[in-house]
């Protein structure tokens, strides 16, 4: 096991933080959801954003972006983003402490609400202890034991979409967030999910470039062919656009206010899917094997696309801009 307890040193630079996060995530990949929580919590990642007074590391969102990108690059199918943000938002509460220490796992529903009696899809909710859902006043953290779950294996049979219902019973509310708190929380989660997708795309591009250099066909490497170089150049452009979009939204606007993270996530999802699809194509049949599991990253991006509702989000943003003009 790699030792990453030195994450508590806030003097860590970007490269050191990424290396420490990658070491911890790599250690956690072979375990189930519960053991993964223990490994990541031991490395300090689940409490990365939690205040030091509440037992966390007290780092900033831009530090969490580095960790989220590493998680995407390594295809961590575990709700690390949700843990980091929720444990910080609920710092000082019992549930927040449990999540920071890796004792409990939380998921976030992108659609539905407490009042509707249904919410989802939520990443890893079938193995989680809590589910955060929207309410008319903000958001509520529900105890999963009081919910009825249903799986829909449409995009990924290994990681099916999971919805929660509570039509015939009153769900157990563990904690509540007001409108301001819930908006800030969703802003952070959306931005960190965008970083995850960016990390997956950058890793796929790097892997594809190496493959094109090493793979020899018809007397020469794939990278010697102009069509392949054009494809790699388009992928690189998309990756750079993703990074620029995330960096822009991570900084405040000219009035010191948070920028709308929905536009960044929607754009990153579109660019990320493009990069992964091209990476699979350039790998040929190997892109669909578990030895080169690019298909897993693409499925994760498409699942996020479906959960987030990218097209509807873009439509809503366009409608708002039209009304403002």
Q: Overview of this structure, please?
A:
The structure is a single chain. Mean pLDDT is 88; it is low at 1-11. The protein has helices spanning 14-28, 33-42, 61-73, 80-89, 94-100, 179-214, 226-250, 261-283, 294-308, 310-324, and strands spanning 106-113, 118-122, 130-134, 138-143, 148-152, 161-165, 173-178, 216-217, 220-221. With 325 residues, the protein is an alpha+beta fold. The protein has 10 helices and 9 strands. Helix 3 crosses helix 6 (179-214) and helix 6 (179-214) packs parallel to helix 8 (261-283). The chain is globular, with a radius of gyration of 20 Å. A 7-stranded mixed sheet has the order 5-6-2-1-3-4-7. Strands 8-9 form a two-stranded antiparallel ribbon.
């Amino acid at each position: 096991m790699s030792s990453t307890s030195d994450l508590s040193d806030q003097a860590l630079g970007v490269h050191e933080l990424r290396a420490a996060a990658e070491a911890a995530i790599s250690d956690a990949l072979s375990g189930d959801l519960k053991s993964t929580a223990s490994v990541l919590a031991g490395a300090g990642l689940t409490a990365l954003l939690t205040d030091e007074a509440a037992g966390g590391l007290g780092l900033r969102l831009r530090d969490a972006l580095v960790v989220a990108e590493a998680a995407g690059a390594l295809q961590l199918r575990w709700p690390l983003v949700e843990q980091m943000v929720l444990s910080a938002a609920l710092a000082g509460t019992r549930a927040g402490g449990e999540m920071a220490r890796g004792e409990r796992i939380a998921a976030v529903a992108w659609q539905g609400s407490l009042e509707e009696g249904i919410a989802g899809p939520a990443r890893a909710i079938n193995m989680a202890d809590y589910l955060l859902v929207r309410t008319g006043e903000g958001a509520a953290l529900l105890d999963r034991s009081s919910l009825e779950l249903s799986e829909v294996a449409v995009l990924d049979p290994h990681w099916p979409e999971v919805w929660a219902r509570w039509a015939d019973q009153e769900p157990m509310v563990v904690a509540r967030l007001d409108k301001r708190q819930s908006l800030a929380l969703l802003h952070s989660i959306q931005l960190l999910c965008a970083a995850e997708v960016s990390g997956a795309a950058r890793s796929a591009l790097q892997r594809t470039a190496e493959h094109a250099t090493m793979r020899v066909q018809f007397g020469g490497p794939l990278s010697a062919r102009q069509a392949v170089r054009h494809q790699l150049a388009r992928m690189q452009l998309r990756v750079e656009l993703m990074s620029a979009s995330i960096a822009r939204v991570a900084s405040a606007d000219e009035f010191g206010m948070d920028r709308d993270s929905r536009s960044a996530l929607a754009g990153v999802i579109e660019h990320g899917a493009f990069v992964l699809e091209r990476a699979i194509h350039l790998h040929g049949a190997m892109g669909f094997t578990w030895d080169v599991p690019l298909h897993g990253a693409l499925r994760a991006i498409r699942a996020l696309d479906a959960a987030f509702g990218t097209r509807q989000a873009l439509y809503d943003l366009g409608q708002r801009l039209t009304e403002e003009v």
